[in-house]
Structure formats: structure tokens, C-alpha cells
Amino acid sequence: MFNTIGIITKPNDPNSDRKALELGALLEERSVTVVHGEQIGEQADLIIVVGGDGSLLNTARTFVDKKIPILGINLGRLGFLADVPATKMQTIVTEVLNGNFIQEKRHLLSCQIKQNGKVLGQYLALNDAVVHRTETLKMIEFDLLIDGKFVSNQRADGLIVTTPTGSTAYALSSGGPIMHPGLDAIGLVSICPHTMSHRPLLVPGKSEVVVHIRESDVGATVNFDGQTSVPIVVGQAIHLRQHQSLIHLLHPQDYDYFEIIRSKLHWGAKL
């Protein structure tokens, strides 16, 4: 089913490199062509990420418009996205090559930073875009708009705009709800708002979310997937909406989202 596979490793990680060599040998035995680097986007019909969730997040943003399926081998700590245990890599990859897998589509956020109608930068996020204060205890002030309609003015440490995929990341630790990845929605979670009335908000997936910076004595930052940070200043706005392309994640046939949630979040564990 898959004839050309791209392998992506975690940078500067000997364990990831060793596991990738083992994977390459398995694919060679199956007469599968392995590609790396720029060849992946041009030739691969499957990408296998040998790393953790961070490596998969970066891969998703890079190749989402190529619509190449992605399989994640988990060498990290969490494994919400890269959900194939390294110890089962050979067995599950063999199953995938035989056509036995579950395919799932997930949304990303397309994010633009604008000032006076001019686009200053454009970014993607699979988990979340986080607007936050920059290395200070002082709050920032911002206006929140949904589809052009004013929602609220907030003074807070920041705001998390999350996809369902990212709902188990920073948004969860900030009191946001867990969203099943099949939901067509965008989550908004305030970070330490200076009022008791602000609560997490879910809006339809086709909404446009705008965060307009009103006041910040020391500047603010918007961070995408915890991997890319961009400074923003008073008068600038962050425009967020679902990206036009979806990523295609592959999972083992016994994939169970709720089992992953139970396991990773220790639901039902005895103290």
C-alpha cells in the first residue's frame, strides 16, 4: 500500500537515530523505498516520525498541505499523538504496510498577525496558539472577537486558542475541557484572568477568532505549539481560524482514544 516512506527523527537524539536505522532495515526487507529531507514532500506516500509528540507536531505543520499520512513512533514522555510504542514498532509498522490501520483527520489552526490590515506573519498550529505576557508578572489586556463580533475585554496572563487535539495540552492544565479530536470546534481558555466570571468557551470550528492587544507595559508573545514564539505589541491582532488542509494520522488497529486518555492522565488510578 505504501511504496515510498519518509522517516523523520528527533534532532540530536541518538536513540531516535538508532530506532530509525532499525525501521529503515525493516522497510528495506519489505522492498519499501525510504526517503529523507526534501524528498519526503515530493515522493513519500507515508511519513513515519521516530520521536515524540513534539516531533510529530513539527512534521504535521510542515507537511499538512501535502496531505501525506503520518504515523508516530513514541520515544517521548506522553504519546498523545505519537502513539506507537517503540517496543511494538516492528509489529505495528508491518501491520500498517499490510493495510491494517485506522486513519484519522485532524484540524490545524491558521494564524495571522496583523497590524492596520497588513499581514506581518503567518503560522500554523496543530495544538494551540497561546497569547501570553512576556517574562513578567504584569497582565496583558486584550479584546476577543468571534466572527467580527465583540465577545469580551480581558486582563489576564494570556489566552489559549486550542484545537481539539491541543485540548489535552496547555489548555487542560489551565482548566479547559477535554475535546474529542472528532469535534469540529475551537476552544478558548483564559490564563489566570483577573475576574472570576471568565470560563472556557467552545465555538464552532468555522469561526474566526481575533485577539487584539490593547495594553501591555512590557510586551506580549504569541506561541505556536510551544515551538515558535513571536513578539507582538499594542495595536497588533492575532487572527485564527481552521487551516484549509487537515492532517491524516495513522493509528494501530486497536487504537482507542479513551484508553490513551485513561492511561496518560491516570484516570481511575489509586492513590
Q: Whole-number radius of gyration? A: 20 Å
- In angstroms, what separates the terminal alpha carbons? 46 Å
Strand content: 35-45%
Silhouette: elongated
The number of distinct structural domains comes to: 2
Main beta sheet strand tally, sense and closure = 6 strands, antiparallel
Q: Strand order across the biggest sheet?
A: 8-7-18-15-10-11
What's the overall average pLDDT, rounded?
Answer: 94
**CATH architectural type of the largest domain:** Sandwich
The low-confidence runs, each spanning 5 or more residues with pLDDT under 50, are: none
Structural class: alpha+beta
Let me know the CATH homologous superfamily of the largest domain: Probable inorganic polyphosphate/atp-NAD kinase, domain 2
Oligomer: single chain
Under CATH, the topology of the largest domain can be stated as Tumour Suppressor Smad4
